[in-house]
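Internal tracking record. Fields below are filled automatically when a chain is submitted to the structure queue. Please do not edit lines marked as system-generated. If the sequence contains nonstandard residues, flag them in the REMARKS field before resubmitting.
Queue: standard
Priority: normal
Entity type: single polypeptide chain
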Amino acid sequence: MMKHMFKLNIAIVFLFFISIGLKGQTIPKEELIFLTSEWKGERFDDGRPRIPDGILERAKKIGIDDAWTVLNNEGYTNQFEGNWKMIHDDVPVVGRALTAMYMPSRPDVESNIKARGHAEGRKGNTNSWPIEMLSQGDVYVADGFGKIDAGTLMGATLATSIFSKSGNGVVFNGSARDLETVKELEGFNAFVRDFHPSFLEEMVTMGLNVPIRMGAAIVLPGDLVIAKQEGVLFVPAHLAEQVVATAEFVALKDVFGFEMVRTKKYTTGEIDSQWSDKIKNDFINWLKGKPELGKMTREELDKVLSKRTW
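SYSTEM-GENERATED OUTPUT FOLLOWS
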């Protein structure tokens, strides 16, 4: 049984690499649309879901714990990965995933990939190719199979290029170099497995804008990346607005709850359990008195409370 499963997995991997090999290591547009078919909004020319800029801005302000809870409620339990080193502890990295998959180099494979890439107009080593594809709001997410020594996917020059193209940071299952210099890039951050002084060696780009694994998490191109001190959450594009809106409500609920408990209008038990109609109406009226915090209808409140586990 195990032997048959092994053969099946090898066949799936083989077919996948045939598919991405048709166009410079990138997944065919129709395949990416199929994999992200729950997304009904705008897409980039390559097929990636294009989460609106407004959602990205709102996502910077939400708690990653609250966002994780929403995903978990929806059955998406393989979207978080922790244990990262960062350049800055207080600079979140939030945006749309642009993915790259690396593998240990093999001379014949690397030679063929470079020859085809250069014929298509790609320049430099293969680790620069994903950077050339970045646009504003993207987060460069790369699976460098955890390599540290000689697994430095970025140094000061590439970090500067990444930041100038995307206005954003990176998440690498690998390493980076030039830490002291990169620290000077204000607003830039990197979530990596470690920092190392070595140069990149014996690695080749095997996939651009393809599904990848980041530790225990699966990442698809166009996913909403939320990287903060706790770790990195990869939110499927079609759930991005729901996750952000619900996490925003949780923050509002906490402010409302603190005020209600402090004024002794409600007990902690009442605030932290299923809300009665009276509490719901009081919340709506309370929010109307604080327009700077946003708006919410009773229908929207009922919907967000319907799956409450927080």
